[in-house]
Amino acid sequence: MFAYRDTSIPKERHDAVNHALKDMATGSLSERIRGEEYLTAIGPAMNGKVTRYVAQLLSSGSSEVRDSATRVIISTGGMEAIPFLVDFLGSPNVMIRHDAIAKLIAITGETFGYEYDGSEDGRKAAQEAWRTWYTDAVKTTSVK
Fold first, then answer.
1. This prediction's pTM
2. What are the backbone dihedrals phi and psi of residue 32, each rounded to the nearest 5 degrees, phi first?
3. pLDDT at 143
């Protein structure tokens, strides 16, 4: 199962994050919504510490769980979310593409010519430019 481990935060917060992840992964609709709302609210205050744990839900067999994880990452992610946001640029869902590029622009100030409603070829080329940029940034800076 999904386990969040961070000894730098109070046990109560740690337990609440674990509970929210479990709700998102296996809960009823109302539990998934509650988990998503909690992580969206608390995520920014935790400086991206939950992104890699929420990202585990992107491999879920449930599209509802994947969509929920995507929304949390887009809403709360910072530099640590960039590789996921770049992946989201290839989504078939135009709103996910829109929100992902908006967040990438907010984080980096870059667009690399990406247009969320542009042609598929144009989006793929710009997405590849984003991947190249991120790979180079990781090699030369503390972006991770």
1. 0.86
2. -60, -45
3. 62
Instruction: Determine the Cα–Cα distance for residues 141 and 118; give it in Å rounded to an integer.
Output: 31
Mean pLDDT rounded to a whole number for the chain: 90
CA 129/CA 37 separation, integer angstroms: 32
Identify the CA nearest to 106 among candidates 123, 122, 82, 130: 82
Question: What tokens were used for 105?
Answer: 């622009």
Confidence of residue 50 (pLDDT cuts 50, 70, 90): confident
91 alpha carbon, distance to own chain's centre: 13
Token pair of 68 as six digits: 């929920």
Q: What is the pLDDT of residues 54-69, one digit of tens each?
A: 999 999 999 999 999 9
Q: What value does the CA radius of gyration of the chain take, rounded to a whole number of Å?
A: 16
The 10s digit of each residue's pLDDT in 112-125 is 999 999 999 999 99
The DSSP-derived string for 50-70 is THHHHHGGGG-S-HHHHHHHH
Q: Of 85, 7, 1, 75, which is closest to residue 42 (Cα–Cα)?
A: 75
